[in-house]
Structures are given as C-alpha cells and as structure tokens.
Write a structure and sequence with these properties.
Layout (H helix, E strand, L loop, with lengths): L4 E5 L3 E5 L22 E6 L19 H13 L4 E6 L3 H10 L4 E7 L10 H12 L4 H6 L8 H14 L2 H6 L1 H5 L14 E6 L8 H11 L4 E5 L5 H4 L1 H21 L2
Parallel strand pairs: 2-3, 2-4, 4-5, 5-6, 6-7
Antiparallel strand pairs: 1-3
C-alpha cells in the first residue's frame, strides 16, 4: 500500500513534500496559494500513522525503511527524479535519501533540519515517547518550546491538529527517527544540491549555529539560510517560505539544464 498523497499543480518541476512530528501534510496548506502551480507539481505526503496514512503501519524507522516508502510514492507518480522538501523529523529521511539515492533527487530543501550527530539521552527519549502516546500532557511540554512571538491560540491549533491527525503509538515510535538519527557525520560525496532553512526564533538545536557546522561537515556545499520564524515557516510566513523553496527548485532545474 502506497502512502497517501495529495497532488497540486501541473508544472514540469516535480516537488515531493514531507511533514514533521507535530502534523501531517496539511502543514503546507497555508503556503500552497503562493507556489506557481503552472511551473511546479507538488505532492504532499502523509507519513505512516499520519493524516490519510493513519492506518498505514509504521514498520520501522531505521535506515532504508521510510526512504523506501517515500520512493514508492514517487514511483507511483512516475517521477524518476524529483525535488524533496522535508521538515524537521522528515529531514532525516531526506538526508538519508541524498546519500543512498542521489540520482533520484534534483535538490533537497531541509526545513528546521535535524543535525547530523544528534543523540538525545535515554531520559529525553522516554519523555518524548510519553508525549507522543499521551495527547493530554502535550500542552505544557510544548508551550515552553513554542515561538514566543506566536499566540496561545496558535499552540492550541497545533495541538488540536496533531491529536486529530496522528496515531499516538506511531508518534511515539517516530522519536527514534529524530532523537537518534542514523546520519553520516563525515563528508559524503553527494552531488545533490541542499538548501537548509533554519528559524531565528526556533529552539536552540534547530538554529543555524547548531545546524550549519554539522550539516556542512557532511554536505560542504549546502546553502544554509536563517528565516525570521520559529519551527514552522510554512505556516508562520507562508509567502516567504514558498518563494524561497520555489527559487531553489528553479535554480536546480536551471543547473540540470546546463549540466552536460
């Protein structure tokens, strides 16, 4: 069974979008009106346990498993080569794919990326798993980590959407994906163009100061840019997010055309 996905647009540049831990593919809804859908075709994917893939079993978060699920969506669409936009948790999947299947990727945008070398302690893993399994305890834990410029109603919306769209046991299982990602921490000879977007108001592990050195140790030519947002630029500043992603996609398309 292929993961559920929603198609928007009719353009020749094919872009597959993956979501984070706290929401499904609808996280990108606010940004959709600002993409040129005559130039791009967007496929927003619900990962196992989320959204329209809520009944799709999460079999494994180890290296290769989720990557195969994502490639199966591209295969179903007939996309031999595509751009991949990932957010937070799913940037682990994107970084693995850039290493294991570089020929499939025309470019990768990592939004609020998990840095190579991340390794949370056992007590943090236990806390996050409990958070995933128990929607009732999430608010206080997440309030301390939310962008201080956003309202309490924003947090209410995020928590309600998370509870509505995600299977708690799957949410708990995904902790292993981003808390101890299996990512190379040394230079990898990969030709996939990488754009990393960080947020000035995001949590410390996701800011440029933490992400850029770790990412450049692996992808020396990566472009790292900081946006004036927290963890959700596609919702906090949708026109700017869409414009930056689209400029990167167009640059990758132009580079492909120039390549021999």
């Amino acid at each position: 069974m292929t993961l559920a996905h929603t198609l928007d647009g009719r353009g020749p540049a094919r872009v597959l979008l993956l979501h984070d831990w706290l929401g499904d593919a609808s996280n990108y809804d606010a940004a959709l009106p600002y993409f040129d859908l005559d130039a791009l075709t967007l496929a927003r994917v619900d990962l196992p346990g989320y959204g329209a893939s809520r009944a799709h079993p999460l079999r494994d978060t180890g290296e290769g498993a989720l990557e195969a699920e994502v490639l199966a969506v591209a295969d179903r669409l007939g996309w031999g080569r595509f751009h991949l936009v990932a957010h937070s948790m799913s940037t682990v999947i994107a970084q693995r794919l850039a290493r294991s299947h570089p020929a499939r990727l025309a470019g990768v945008t990592l939004t609020a990326p998990v840095a190579p070398g991340t390794h949370l302690p056992d007590e943090a893993l236990a806390f996050l798993r409990a958070l995933g399994r128990t929607p009732g305890i999430r608010r206080d834990a997440l309030a301390a980590r939310a962008n201080p410029h956003l309202s309490a109603r924003w947090l209410d919306h995020k928590l309600a959407r998370w509870a509505a769209c995600a299977e708690p046991e799957a949410v708990a299982a995904y902790v292993d994906l981003f808390a101890r990602p299996q990512l190379a921490t040394t230079r990898v000879e990969v030709t996939v163009p990488v754009l990393a977007l960080t947020g000035a108001d995001d949590g410390e592990p996701f800011r440029s100061a933490a992400v850029e050195p770790a990412l450049r140790a692996v992808h020396a030519d990566a472009t790292v840019e900081e946006l004036p947002t927290g963890h959700y630029p596609m919702q906090e500043m949708p026109p700017r997010f869409a414009a930056r992603v689209e400029r990167f996609v167009r640059a990758c398309v132009a580079a492909d055309v120039r390549a021999p």
